[in-house]
Amino acid sequence: MTARTRVVIRKALAADHHVEIAETSRRGHATRLAQGAAATGTDVVVVLGGDGTLNEAANGLAGSGTAMAVLPGGSTNVFARTLGLPNEPIEATAVVLEALEEGAISRVGLGSANGRYFLFHTGMGFDAAVVSQVERRSGLKRYAGHPLYLYATLSTWHRHYDRTRPRFAVHLPGGTVIDDAYFAVCCNTDPYTYMGKRPLHLAPDATFDKGLAMLTLRSLSLPTILSVTASALGSGRRARRHRLTDYRSDLSSFRVRGHGPFPYQVDGDYLGEVDELVLRHEPEALRLVTPSPSTAPSAPPQR
């Protein structure tokens, strides 16, 4: 983000609205700023940042009457692109202003992991270990986002994650237990993430008005990883039906219990290791400014 871009966005927002600017300075700061805005009756908090900043702001606004609007300011911008916003922040500002003029604000459901809200997904096991490696090289992220993620994935698979044993068990409603999980993603929306301009679809059933979707991998063998990734570049159907995966949708709550501590991440933000996660769907938790349907992404091709 350049200073000029921020000035242009502020002028555009201030043309018809009273605008106050607040900049984050440390981890967790966006949550406190959003809480303060909600406490003073602010109508809308417009968040210009990456997915981690959006997550913090959403945690500060959930349950309040203050709405959140999204502007892409990170390296991947999964949530902004999921909403159908342009990946260029000034173009996205025009879309958000149009949505505000139309009063396009809806209450949407969020997920929660041990009480921490998430907008689009929580990753457990291998996925979180990759995010941890990326965050260790955070200075490179803004310049080499997608190549860095690819390098971190390969490096984690080879050297930084124990692939010799399952890491956790997924305890689903009805008593079903998947006790040999290496990697799992709990989705509140789809796609799971983006590879460049290509979305990765793991859980098309995941929408704001339904429960959570959960894809669990019971192997980290190279053929399994390649098969799931190739399928996710299309509709993800083969990934969900793979003999070494388990897929569930419209879940209201479930637990993940580790065979020892396991890593997890929320909306691309690494949060460390835990022994257990309780995941829940939280209906109508956040007021969200939504773009015009004409900007929504087209349906993925079926494979």
How are the SSEs placed, and which strands pair?
Blueprint: H1 3-14, H2 29-39, E1 44-49, H3 51-61, E2 67-72, H4 78-82, H5 89-102, E3 105-113, E4 116-118, E5 121-125, H6 126-135, H7 138-141, H8 145-160, E6 168-171, E7 177-181, E8 183-187, E9 193-195, E10 198-200, E11 212-217, H9 222-232, H10 237-241, E12 245-251, E13 253-266, E14 269-289
Parallel strand pairs: 1-2
Antiparallel strand pairs: 3-4, 3-14, 5-8, 5-13, 6-7, 6-13, 8-11, 9-10, 11-12, 13-14
Radius of gyration: 19 Å
Number of strands: 14
How would you sum up the major sheet?
A: 10 strands, antiparallel
* CATH fold-level topology of the largest domain: Tumour Suppressor Smad4
CATH class of the largest domain: Mainly Beta
Q: What is the percent of helical residues?
A: 25-40%
Shape: globular
Q: Alpha-carbon distance between the termini?
A: 37 Å
**Distinct helical segment count:** 10
Give start-end ranges of low-pLDDT stretches.
Answer: 294-303
Beta-strand content: 25-35%
Question: Would you tell me the structural class of the helices and strands?
Answer: alpha+beta
In the CATH hierarchy, the architecture of the largest domain is Sandwich
Helices and strands, in order, run as: HHEHEHHEEEHHHEEEEEEHHEEE
Mean pLDDT: 91
Write down the domain tally.
Answer: 2
